[in-house]
Design a protein that fits this description.
Elements lengths: L4 E4 L1 H9 L15 H14 L9 E3 L7 E4 L4 E6 L5 E9 H4 L3 H17 L11 H4 L3
Parallel strand pairs: 1-5
Antiparallel strand pairs: 2-3, 3-4, 4-5
């Protein structure tokens, strides 16, 4: 079993706890709530033999900032890669909201960069494409 480093900020958990739609059965996908889909993706990231596919983890544009977004069903998670094979999740948003609100996308991008700056983590950013974060 692979064990990749996964870090999740308290702000992310506050969003999860305060977003009722993530836990509602009526918003479920494949008999799971959005939160259960998020949880499965994070477990897979940490423990699966293979890292998540390039379609599940993508760089945000502009790519020069090194901010990544994860795509569990029904949500988008935002963070960065501090070293190959690891991930920090800073914030999240429901997919239905973020797809129609470009300024909110930019707010999450800025939020990740602000978190890095606040905690002095600007030197802990792996830049590059998918192969840079998951070398073969």
């Amino acid at each position: 079993m692979a064990l990749r480093s996964l870090y999740v900020t308290p702000g992310f958990w506050t969003w999860v706890d305060n977003t009722a739609e993530l836990h509602e059965p009526l918003k479920a996908l494949g008999s799971r709530s959005i939160f259960e889909q998020i949880e499965l993706m994070l477990i897979d990231f940490r423990c699966a033999d293979r890292p998540p596919g390039a379609s599940e983890l993508r760089r945000m544009i502009p790519t020069k900032h090194g901010v990544w977004k994860a795509h569990p069903p029904g949500a988008r998670l935002f963070g960065w890669v501090p070293e190959p094979g690891s991930l920090v999740i800073v914030s999240g948003e429901r997919e239905a909201i973020i797809k129609t609100n470009r300024p909110l996308y930019e707010q999450h991008l800025k939020g990740v960069m602000d978190f890095q700056k606040l905690h002095g983590l600007e030197s802990w950013i792996v830049r590059g494409d998918y192969r840079a974060i998951f070398p073969a």
